[in-house]
């Protein structure tokens, strides 16, 4: 919302019902509010299966479920767009639970892990597109130092997480979290808070490496010196 819109907005609506608010709007001359269609976002599909709902509108694009741990093909899905990071993957023939940890929209492969809290689901860094600041301009602290301490969330009512924000030249921001968070997802919105104030939001467009990837790198670095020492051993 722009500052101009906020100047003409009064919160909260408290216990007023939607019908009553529409009546107030109509009496105030906002007749177009009564004609406006109701929101039909994905949250309103009810008890229907999400995959079945999506495939009513999009053609299936089959691809493989691939184990994030060893690259083994575990099964086949009907389209990467029917799956969300963190959800349980329905894989035919698999008795144990597997969970979606990553997706490759180029190849159509969906990577899965064997536990709901697999390290491949946790990251501590995200980048947004151009950030929308409710005050229109970034906080003075961020403008002056290009860095600011505040709090982050990307799901309604999730606990606030301390973070460090870095401002980029194009108005986007890097957000470095104090601890890794599960299932950060591109396309969702990063929202920043300072005390009780909501500073603004930006769409997540890029993710940092997962805890699984970082651990693999650490393991390779530990093995590298050993391999080097072996190559330097004198021939017997």
TrEMBL record:
The keyword Transferase applies. It catalyses: 5-taurinomethyluridine(34) in tRNA + S-sulfanyl-L-cysteinyl-[protein] + AH2 + ATP = 5-taurinomethyl-2-thiouridine(34) in tRNA + L-cysteinyl-[protein] + A + AMP + diphosphate + H(+). Residues 51-113 form the tRNA-specific 2-thiouridylase MnmA-like central domain. GO terms for biological process: tRNA wobble position uridine thiolation. Residues 124-204 form the tRNA-specific 2-thiouridylase MnmA-like C-terminal domain. One of its GO terms (molecular function) is ATP binding. Keywords: ATP-binding, Disulfide bond, Nucleotide-binding, RNA-binding, Transferase, tRNA processing, tRNA-binding. GO terms for cellular component: mitochondrion. Residues 214-236 are annotated as: Disordered. Its EC number is 2.8.1.14. Belongs to the MnmA/TRMU family. Catalyzes the 2-thiolation of uridine at the wobble position (U34) of mitochondrial tRNA(Lys), tRNA(Glu) and tRNA(Gln). Required for the formation of 5-taurinomethyl-2-thiouridine (tm5s2U) of mitochondrial tRNA(Lys), tRNA(Glu), and tRNA(Gln) at the wobble position. ATP is required to activate the C2 atom of the wobble base. This is tRNA-5-taurinomethyluridine 2-sulfurtransferase. It comes from Coregonus suidteri. The lineage of its organism: Eukaryota, Metazoa, Chordata, Craniata, Vertebrata.
């Amino acid at each position: 919302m722009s500052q101009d819109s906020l100047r003409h907005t009064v919160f909260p609506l408290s216990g007023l019902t939607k019908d009553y608010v529409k009546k107030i709007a109509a009496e105030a001359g906002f007749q177009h509010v009564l004609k406006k269609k109701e929101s039909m976002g994905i949250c309103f599909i009810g008890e229907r299966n999400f995959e079945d709902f999506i495939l009513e509108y999009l053609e299936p694009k089959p691809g493989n479920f691939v184990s994030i741990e060893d690259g083994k093909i575990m099964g086949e899905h009907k389209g990467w767009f029917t799956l969300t990071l963190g959800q349980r993957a329905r894989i035919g023939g698999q008795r144990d639970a597997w969970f979606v940890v990553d997706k490759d929209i180029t190849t159509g492969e969906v990577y899965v892990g064997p536990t709901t809290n697999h390290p491949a689901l946790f990251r501590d860094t995200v980048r947004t597109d151009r950030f929308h600041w409710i005050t229109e301009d970034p906080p003075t602290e961020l403008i002056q130092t290009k860095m600011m301490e505040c709090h982050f969330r990307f799901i309604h009512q999730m606990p606030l997480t301390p973070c460090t924000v870095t401002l980029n030249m194009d108005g986007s921001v890097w957000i470095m979290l104090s601890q890794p968070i599960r299932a950060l997802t591109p396309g969702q919105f990063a929202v920043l808070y300072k005390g009780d104030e909501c500073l603004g939001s930006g769409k997540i467009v890029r993710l940092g490496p997962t805890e699984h990837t970082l651990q693999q790198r650490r393991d390779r670095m530990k093995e590298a010196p050993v391999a080097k020492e072996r190559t330097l051993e004198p021939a017997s």
